[in-house]
Design goal:
The protein is α+β, with helices and mostly antiparallel strands. 34% of the residues lie in helices and 27% in strands. It has 13 helices and 14 strands. A 5-stranded antiparallel sheet has the order 2-1-5-4-3, with helices on both faces. The chain is elongated and about 115 Å long. It starts with 25 loop residues before the first helix and ends in a 10-residue tail after the last strand. The N terminus is likely disordered.
Protein backbone atom coordinates (compact mmCIF):
# COMPACT_ATOMS: atom_id res chain seq x y z
CA UNK A 1 0.00 0.00 0.00
CA UNK A 2 1.25 3.47 -0.85
CA UNK A 3 1.42 5.45 2.41
CA UNK A 4 2.90 8.61 0.89
CA UNK A 5 0.66 11.61 1.61
CA UNK A 6 -1.03 12.69 -1.57
CA UNK A 7 0.30 16.25 -1.25
CA UNK A 8 3.91 14.98 -1.23
CA UNK A 9 3.64 12.74 -4.27
CA UNK A 10 5.58 13.79 -7.35
CA UNK A 11 3.54 14.72 -10.40
CA UNK A 12 3.18 12.11 -13.12
CA UNK A 13 5.64 12.41 -16.00
CA UNK A 14 3.85 12.85 -19.27
CA UNK A 15 5.04 12.54 -22.84
CA UNK A 16 6.77 9.80 -24.80
CA UNK A 17 5.39 6.85 -26.76
CA UNK A 18 2.81 4.74 -24.88
CA UNK A 19 2.54 7.03 -21.86
CA UNK A 20 -0.94 7.28 -20.34
CA UNK A 21 -0.39 10.01 -17.79
CA UNK A 22 -0.51 7.53 -14.90
CA UNK A 23 2.23 7.58 -12.36
CA UNK A 24 5.36 6.06 -13.88
CA UNK A 25 7.84 4.04 -11.92
CA UNK A 26 11.40 5.32 -11.42
CA UNK A 27 12.89 3.04 -14.07
CA UNK A 28 10.54 4.41 -16.71
CA UNK A 29 11.28 7.99 -15.70
CA UNK A 30 14.98 7.36 -16.05
CA UNK A 31 14.36 5.73 -19.42
CA UNK A 32 12.59 8.86 -20.64
CA UNK A 33 15.46 11.08 -19.42
CA UNK A 34 17.97 8.88 -21.20
CA UNK A 35 15.95 8.81 -24.42
CA UNK A 36 15.78 12.58 -24.46
CA UNK A 37 19.39 13.20 -23.44
CA UNK A 38 22.15 14.52 -25.67
CA UNK A 39 24.62 11.85 -24.48
CA UNK A 40 24.63 8.41 -26.08
CA UNK A 41 23.75 5.74 -23.50
CA UNK A 42 24.11 2.04 -24.27
CA UNK A 43 24.09 -1.46 -22.83
CA UNK A 44 26.14 -4.08 -24.64
CA UNK A 45 25.51 -7.75 -23.91
CA UNK A 46 28.48 -10.15 -23.93
CA UNK A 47 26.72 -13.49 -23.16
CA UNK A 48 25.19 -15.69 -24.38
CA UNK A 49 25.85 -13.80 -27.62
CA UNK A 50 27.21 -10.32 -28.23
CA UNK A 51 24.95 -7.49 -29.16
CA UNK A 52 23.44 -4.14 -28.15
CA UNK A 53 20.50 -4.44 -25.76
CA UNK A 54 19.90 -0.69 -25.67
CA UNK A 55 21.17 2.33 -27.60
CA UNK A 56 19.68 5.76 -26.92
CA UNK A 57 18.27 7.93 -29.74
CA UNK A 58 21.25 10.31 -29.41
CA UNK A 59 23.18 7.79 -31.50
CA UNK A 60 21.50 9.05 -34.66
CA UNK A 61 22.54 12.67 -34.07
CA UNK A 62 26.06 11.84 -32.88
CA UNK A 63 27.04 9.13 -35.37
CA UNK A 64 24.50 9.10 -38.20
CA UNK A 65 23.68 5.49 -37.28
CA UNK A 66 20.31 4.80 -35.64
CA UNK A 67 19.75 2.55 -32.62
CA UNK A 68 18.32 -0.02 -35.05
CA UNK A 69 21.61 -0.01 -36.99
CA UNK A 70 23.40 -0.87 -33.76
CA UNK A 71 20.97 -3.65 -32.89
CA UNK A 72 21.46 -5.16 -36.34
CA UNK A 73 25.30 -5.08 -36.19
CA UNK A 74 26.94 -6.21 -32.91
CA UNK A 75 30.31 -4.90 -34.17
CA UNK A 76 29.14 -1.41 -35.13
CA UNK A 77 30.44 0.09 -31.88
CA UNK A 78 33.95 -1.09 -32.72
CA UNK A 79 33.66 -0.10 -36.36
CA UNK A 80 32.81 3.46 -35.30
CA UNK A 81 36.11 3.87 -33.48
CA UNK A 82 38.92 5.44 -35.51
CA UNK A 83 41.48 2.73 -36.44
CA UNK A 84 44.26 4.60 -34.64
CA UNK A 85 42.25 4.61 -31.38
CA UNK A 86 40.97 1.03 -31.31
CA UNK A 87 43.84 -0.14 -29.14
CA UNK A 88 42.49 2.13 -26.38
CA UNK A 89 39.10 0.44 -26.53
CA UNK A 90 40.70 -3.01 -26.57
CA UNK A 91 42.79 -2.13 -23.49
CA UNK A 92 39.66 -1.03 -21.63
CA UNK A 93 37.78 -4.18 -22.64
CA UNK A 94 40.67 -6.29 -21.32
CA UNK A 95 40.43 -4.54 -17.96
CA UNK A 96 43.80 -2.79 -18.29
CA UNK A 97 42.30 0.61 -17.60
CA UNK A 98 39.15 1.92 -15.91
CA UNK A 99 39.72 5.57 -16.81
CA UNK A 100 37.29 7.43 -19.09
CA UNK A 101 38.18 6.84 -22.71
CA UNK A 102 38.68 9.72 -25.13
CA UNK A 103 38.28 8.28 -28.62
CA UNK A 104 37.70 9.46 -32.14
CA UNK A 105 34.63 8.08 -33.86
CA UNK A 106 34.11 8.13 -37.61
CA UNK A 107 30.56 9.25 -38.37
CA UNK A 108 28.49 7.74 -41.13
CA UNK A 109 29.37 10.70 -43.37
CA UNK A 110 33.11 10.21 -42.72
CA UNK A 111 33.57 13.20 -40.40
CA UNK A 112 35.39 12.85 -37.09
CA UNK A 113 33.71 13.04 -33.69
CA UNK A 114 35.68 13.12 -30.44
CA UNK A 115 33.90 11.29 -27.60
CA UNK A 116 34.52 10.67 -23.93
CA UNK A 117 33.22 7.27 -22.85
CA UNK A 118 32.46 6.08 -19.32
CA UNK A 119 31.93 2.31 -19.10
CA UNK A 120 30.69 0.22 -16.16
CA UNK A 121 31.11 -3.60 -16.15
CA UNK A 122 28.04 -5.69 -15.31
CA UNK A 123 28.69 -9.05 -13.64
CA UNK A 124 26.36 -11.86 -12.62
CA UNK A 125 26.15 -13.60 -9.24
CA UNK A 126 29.21 -15.71 -10.10
CA UNK A 127 31.29 -12.71 -10.97
CA UNK A 128 31.22 -13.35 -14.72
CA UNK A 129 31.24 -10.25 -16.92
CA UNK A 130 27.96 -10.37 -18.81
CA UNK A 131 27.51 -6.85 -20.14
CA UNK A 132 28.89 -3.33 -20.35
CA UNK A 133 26.82 -0.24 -19.66
CA UNK A 134 28.14 3.10 -20.67
CA UNK A 135 27.71 6.64 -21.82
CA UNK A 136 29.48 8.55 -24.59
CA UNK A 137 29.60 12.33 -24.74
CA UNK A 138 30.54 14.56 -27.67
CA UNK A 139 33.73 16.42 -26.64
CA UNK A 140 34.82 17.48 -30.13
CA UNK A 141 34.99 21.19 -29.32
CA UNK A 142 37.00 20.53 -26.16
CA UNK A 143 39.49 18.21 -27.86
CA UNK A 144 39.96 20.42 -30.90
CA UNK A 145 40.60 23.36 -28.59
CA UNK A 146 43.17 21.35 -26.63
CA UNK A 147 44.88 20.22 -29.83
CA UNK A 148 45.04 23.82 -31.04
CA UNK A 149 46.53 24.88 -27.70
CA UNK A 150 49.11 22.09 -27.85
CA UNK A 151 50.07 23.07 -31.39
CA UNK A 152 50.35 26.69 -30.31
CA UNK A 153 52.47 25.68 -27.31
CA UNK A 154 54.74 23.61 -29.57
CA UNK A 155 55.32 26.62 -31.83
CA UNK A 156 55.88 28.80 -28.75
CA UNK A 157 58.49 26.40 -27.38
CA UNK A 158 60.23 26.15 -30.74
CA UNK A 159 60.50 29.94 -30.81
CA UNK A 160 61.89 30.06 -27.27
CA UNK A 161 64.42 27.36 -28.10
CA UNK A 162 65.83 29.41 -30.96
CA UNK A 163 66.25 32.76 -29.24
CA UNK A 164 69.51 33.76 -27.59
CA UNK A 165 67.64 34.99 -24.52
CA UNK A 166 67.08 32.92 -21.39
CA UNK A 167 63.61 31.33 -21.54
CA UNK A 168 61.73 28.79 -19.44
CA UNK A 169 58.18 27.75 -18.52
CA UNK A 170 56.87 26.88 -15.04
CA UNK A 171 53.68 25.16 -13.96
CA UNK A 172 51.53 26.95 -11.33
CA UNK A 173 53.52 25.18 -8.56
CA UNK A 174 56.80 26.62 -9.82
CA UNK A 175 58.15 23.43 -11.41
CA UNK A 176 60.12 23.71 -14.65
CA UNK A 177 58.28 22.20 -17.63
CA UNK A 178 60.54 23.68 -20.32
CA UNK A 179 63.94 25.37 -20.41
CA UNK A 180 65.81 26.48 -23.51
CA UNK A 181 69.51 26.00 -24.14
CA UNK A 182 70.36 29.54 -23.05
CA UNK A 183 68.84 28.89 -19.62
CA UNK A 184 70.45 25.45 -19.30
CA UNK A 185 73.81 26.93 -20.26
CA UNK A 186 73.45 29.69 -17.68
CA UNK A 187 72.78 27.20 -14.87
CA UNK A 188 75.38 24.69 -16.14
CA UNK A 189 72.93 21.88 -16.95
CA UNK A 190 72.50 19.65 -19.99
CA UNK A 191 69.35 19.14 -22.05
CA UNK A 192 66.40 18.20 -19.85
CA UNK A 193 68.41 18.71 -16.69
CA UNK A 194 65.93 21.18 -15.25
CA UNK A 195 62.68 19.34 -16.07
CA UNK A 196 60.41 18.85 -13.07
CA UNK A 197 62.63 20.74 -10.64
CA UNK A 198 61.34 23.47 -8.35
CA UNK A 199 62.66 26.64 -9.99
CA UNK A 200 62.61 28.65 -6.76
CA UNK A 201 64.42 26.01 -4.69
CA UNK A 202 66.98 25.02 -7.30
CA UNK A 203 67.85 28.20 -9.16
CA UNK A 204 66.83 31.30 -7.19
CA UNK A 205 69.32 32.83 -4.74
CA UNK A 206 68.32 31.90 -1.14
CA UNK A 207 67.97 35.51 -0.01
CA UNK A 208 65.42 36.18 -2.81
CA UNK A 209 63.62 32.83 -2.75
CA UNK A 210 60.78 33.43 -0.26
CA UNK A 211 59.90 36.90 -1.52
CA UNK A 212 59.91 35.92 -5.19
CA UNK A 213 57.89 32.76 -4.57
CA UNK A 214 55.24 34.70 -2.62
CA UNK A 215 55.02 37.29 -5.40
CA UNK A 216 54.56 34.72 -8.16
CA UNK A 217 52.08 32.66 -6.10
CA UNK A 218 50.00 35.81 -5.58
CA UNK A 219 50.01 36.37 -9.35
CA UNK A 220 48.82 32.81 -9.96
CA UNK A 221 46.11 33.11 -7.31
CA UNK A 222 44.94 36.35 -8.88
CA UNK A 223 44.81 34.75 -12.31
CA UNK A 224 47.15 37.29 -13.88
CA UNK A 225 50.92 37.60 -14.19
CA UNK A 226 52.91 40.27 -16.02
CA UNK A 227 55.99 41.53 -14.22
CA UNK A 228 59.72 42.16 -14.52
CA UNK A 229 62.10 40.38 -12.16
CA UNK A 230 65.80 40.94 -11.52
CA UNK A 231 67.42 38.15 -9.53
CA UNK A 232 70.49 35.95 -9.24
CA UNK A 233 70.31 32.48 -10.80
CA UNK A 234 72.26 29.86 -8.89
CA UNK A 235 74.00 27.43 -11.26
CA UNK A 236 74.66 23.75 -10.59
CA UNK A 237 78.30 24.54 -9.77
CA UNK A 238 77.28 27.18 -7.22
CA UNK A 239 78.14 30.17 -9.39
CA UNK A 240 75.65 33.00 -9.83
CA UNK A 241 74.39 34.91 -12.82
CA UNK A 242 72.34 38.10 -12.62
CA UNK A 243 69.30 37.91 -14.89
CA UNK A 244 66.50 40.29 -15.89
CA UNK A 245 63.31 38.33 -16.64
CA UNK A 246 59.85 39.24 -17.85
CA UNK A 247 57.29 36.79 -16.45
CA UNK A 248 53.84 36.40 -18.02
CA UNK A 249 50.93 34.08 -17.24
CA UNK A 250 49.65 31.59 -19.83
CA UNK A 251 45.88 31.10 -19.42
CA UNK A 252 44.04 27.84 -20.05
CA UNK A 253 40.65 27.39 -21.77
CA UNK A 254 38.81 28.42 -18.59
CA UNK A 255 40.88 31.58 -18.14
CA UNK A 256 42.89 30.38 -15.14
CA UNK A 257 46.68 30.41 -15.28
CA UNK A 258 48.03 27.04 -16.36
CA UNK A 259 51.67 28.07 -16.74
CA UNK A 260 54.15 30.91 -16.38
CA UNK A 261 56.60 31.83 -19.13
CA UNK A 262 59.77 33.79 -18.43
CA UNK A 263 62.12 35.30 -20.98
CA UNK A 264 64.98 37.70 -20.41
CA UNK A 265 68.61 38.68 -20.47
CA UNK A 266 71.61 37.13 -18.80
CA UNK A 267 73.04 40.39 -17.44
CA UNK A 268 76.23 38.65 -16.33
CA UNK A 269 76.80 37.37 -19.87
CA UNK A 270 76.16 40.86 -21.25
CA UNK A 271 78.72 42.32 -18.84
CA UNK A 272 81.21 39.63 -19.84
CA UNK A 273 80.62 40.36 -23.53
CA UNK A 274 81.03 44.09 -22.98
CA UNK A 275 84.28 43.44 -21.12
CA UNK A 276 85.58 41.20 -23.91
CA UNK A 277 84.59 43.75 -26.54
CA UNK A 278 86.27 46.54 -24.57
CA UNK A 279 89.49 44.54 -24.30
CA UNK A 280 89.40 43.69 -28.00
CA UNK A 281 88.71 47.31 -28.94
CA UNK A 282 91.59 48.49 -26.76
CA UNK A 283 93.93 45.96 -28.37
CA UNK A 284 92.96 47.03 -31.90
CA UNK A 285 93.21 50.71 -31.05
CA UNK A 286 96.67 50.32 -29.50
CA UNK A 287 98.31 47.83 -31.88
CA UNK A 288 101.10 49.12 -34.14
CA UNK A 289 99.65 47.22 -37.12
CA UNK A 290 97.15 48.99 -39.37
CA UNK A 291 93.62 47.52 -39.08
CA UNK A 292 90.82 48.18 -41.54
CA UNK A 293 87.26 46.73 -41.54
CA UNK A 294 84.98 46.88 -44.60
CA UNK A 295 81.46 45.69 -45.36
CA UNK A 296 80.85 42.98 -47.98
CA UNK A 297 80.81 45.62 -50.72
CA UNK A 298 84.29 46.75 -49.72
CA UNK A 299 83.28 50.08 -48.19
CA UNK A 300 85.44 50.99 -45.20
CA UNK A 301 83.62 50.86 -41.85
CA UNK A 302 86.55 51.33 -39.45
CA UNK A 303 90.27 52.09 -39.37
CA UNK A 304 92.50 52.17 -36.30
CA UNK A 305 95.04 54.87 -35.35
CA UNK A 306 97.92 52.82 -36.80
CA UNK A 307 96.20 52.95 -40.22
CA UNK A 308 96.05 56.75 -39.96
CA UNK A 309 99.76 56.93 -39.13
CA UNK A 310 100.83 54.51 -41.90
CA UNK A 311 98.64 55.85 -44.73
CA UNK A 312 98.18 59.49 -43.82
CA UNK A 313 94.38 59.20 -44.20
CA UNK A 314 92.41 60.32 -41.13
CA UNK A 315 89.57 58.19 -39.80
CA UNK A 316 86.96 60.59 -41.18
CA UNK A 317 88.63 60.56 -44.63
CA UNK A 318 88.81 56.78 -44.86
CA UNK A 319 85.39 55.65 -43.52
CA UNK A 320 82.88 55.28 -46.35
CA UNK A 321 85.63 55.08 -48.98
CA UNK A 322 86.83 51.96 -50.79
CA UNK A 323 90.31 50.54 -50.11
CA UNK A 324 91.09 51.53 -53.71
CA UNK A 325 92.19 54.87 -52.24
CA UNK A 326 95.39 53.02 -51.36
CA UNK A 327 95.82 51.40 -54.79
CA UNK A 328 99.24 52.09 -56.30
CA UNK A 329 98.73 50.49 -59.72
CA UNK A 330 101.64 48.14 -59.13
CA UNK A 331 99.34 45.04 -58.89
CA UNK A 332 97.36 43.87 -61.89
CA UNK A 333 93.60 43.48 -62.10
CA UNK A 334 94.15 39.72 -62.27
CA UNK A 335 95.97 39.89 -58.94
CA UNK A 336 92.96 41.57 -57.28
CA UNK A 337 90.46 39.17 -58.91
CA UNK A 338 92.31 36.19 -57.43
CA UNK A 339 92.38 37.88 -54.03
CA UNK A 340 88.61 38.59 -54.04
CA UNK A 341 87.77 35.06 -55.22
CA UNK A 342 89.63 33.75 -52.19
CA UNK A 343 87.84 36.12 -49.82
CA UNK A 344 84.40 35.43 -51.35
CA UNK A 345 84.90 31.72 -50.68
CA UNK A 346 85.25 32.51 -46.96
CA UNK A 347 88.99 31.78 -46.82
CA UNK A 348 91.58 34.30 -45.58
CA UNK A 349 94.08 35.89 -47.99
CA UNK A 350 97.68 36.66 -47.16
CA UNK A 351 100.18 38.38 -49.38
CA UNK A 352 102.30 41.41 -50.13
CA UNK A 353 100.73 44.67 -51.33
CA UNK A 354 102.30 47.83 -52.69
CA UNK A 355 100.05 50.71 -51.62
CA UNK A 356 100.07 54.48 -51.94
CA UNK A 357 99.86 56.92 -49.02
CA UNK A 358 97.77 60.08 -49.07
CA UNK A 359 100.87 62.10 -49.96
CA UNK A 360 101.56 59.84 -52.97
CA UNK A 361 104.52 57.94 -51.59
CA UNK A 362 104.51 54.15 -51.89
CA UNK A 363 104.88 51.59 -49.16
CA UNK A 364 104.99 47.80 -49.11
CA UNK A 365 102.98 45.87 -46.55
CA UNK A 366 102.43 42.24 -45.67
CA UNK A 367 98.63 42.05 -45.53
CA UNK A 368 96.31 39.50 -43.99
CA UNK A 369 92.65 39.85 -45.03
CA UNK A 370 90.12 37.67 -43.22
CA UNK A 371 86.37 37.34 -43.92
CA UNK A 372 84.18 37.80 -40.82
CA UNK A 373 81.53 35.08 -40.82
CA UNK A 374 78.17 35.44 -39.05
CA UNK A 375 76.26 32.71 -37.12
CA UNK A 376 74.66 31.40 -40.33
CA UNK A 377 78.03 31.07 -42.10
CA UNK A 378 77.45 34.15 -44.24
CA UNK A 379 80.35 36.59 -44.76
Amino acid sequence: MDTTPSGDRPAAVRGGAGETGDRLDLAERLRILVDRGLDLVYRYRLVPERGFEYVSPAATVMTGYSPEDHYADPDLGLKLVHPDDRHLLEAAAAGRTSDPLVLRWVRRDGSILWTEQHNVPVVDASGTLVAIEGMARDVTVREETLHALRASEARFRTLLERVDLIAFVLDPMGRVTFANRAFLGAVRLGDGGADGTDWFEEFVAPERRATLRATIEADVAGGKANRSVVTDLVAADGSRRLVHLHVIGLPGPDGSLTALAAIGDDLTAIDEQVSRSARLAAAIEQTTDAVIITDTLGDIQYVNPAFERVTGFAYEEAVGQNPRILKSGRQSDRFYRRMWRTLASGAPWRGELTNRRKDGTLFIEEASITPIVGPGGRV
